[in-house]
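Supplementary Methods, section 5.1.

A reviewer requested that the exact input to the structure prediction be made available. We therefore reproduce it here, unchanged from the version used in the analyses.
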Amino acid sequence: GALITEKISMLGKYAVTLSGTGYIGVSKKIRSESVRERLKETGKEICAEHMGLIIRTAAENADMDEFRTDIIRLKENWDIIQKRFRMEKSPTLLYRESDIIVKALRDYVNKGTEILITDNRKIYDRICKLNESEHTMEPDKILLYKERMPLLKKEQIEEQIHLLFERQVELPSGGSLIIEDTEALTVIDVNSGAFNRQGIPHEEAVYLINQEAAIEIARQVRLRGIGGMILIDFIDMKKENQKKDIVGILQRELKKDKVKSIVCGMTSLGLVEMTRKRTTHSLIKNYCDICPICNGTGHILSVQSVIQQIHRELETVKRYGGAQDLVIQCHPEVAARLKEEQKAGYFMKYFNREIMIEENDHLNREVYSVLSSLK
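The structure derived from this sequence is encoded token-by-token as follows.
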């Protein structure tokens, strides 16, 4: 369940401050001992006696002046909260977490960012103002979009988002990924698909497809927000060094992700188990509801299965019903097949009565009604 703590945290670009503790921690992703010690010492110099610090991975390559400024700003914010706490009458809001603009600048913009575009003048002015104080990126890389066509339309962002709902993901070589989301875990299957080997030996072709798949899997997991247990079925490889390479590529690509992932080795069957920390709901759960037709199973009865159900109901009517004619109301696909049977004289032959077929566009394919005729 939810836990309540007095150790209130405040998130910055390079660190997280913790009130009520003197603990100084460094992200495990920062491997260099000299860098870890330098960051720890700097944090101790700035932090107050009862303020702890968790140094984020982004601090590894940060300019030390920027790192100090980030911690000082967090410390000043905490001091302001303390003053307001002593002055204000309860209940009152002492602090509000940063909005999406500040979070985007803090968490996603770095020295490798090529360009930042917005089509909103107010947001553009705010970003420029924030950038003046925090020096997140070069000012000439922040652009205001002014064209008539909407920005998301021009950059085809909506189309790219909808591609993330697709079950199948194509790979450059002609292979593909099949991504299945279940209650317990996510399963990703790697297929060779339409890959044309063009004289490449089978083992090398498989190795090439698995390389592409490992890179794309890390990207898809990040973009789709997939968390929890993930099981990946790579195409079977015989050489142990190739198996290690594929696992290494997957681990390398996952390091680009801010969310913690753990990759286990590959089994003899080519299966890789990995976990990714759940931070939010996956993209598909945020965008989509469960289908009211199939209730999330991904399957509905075939036309032939529905017709068999109708035949069984007609058998029951024949045994226990009267001699009146019947009307079957059903989905157009089912109606088309029933009308073929009607023309062939099937109903008169087996049920010895007239049966009218009525199409109803509003019905689910699995839904039908067998009614007595009013004539």
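The two ends are 64 Å apart (CA to CA). These observations are discussed further in the main text.
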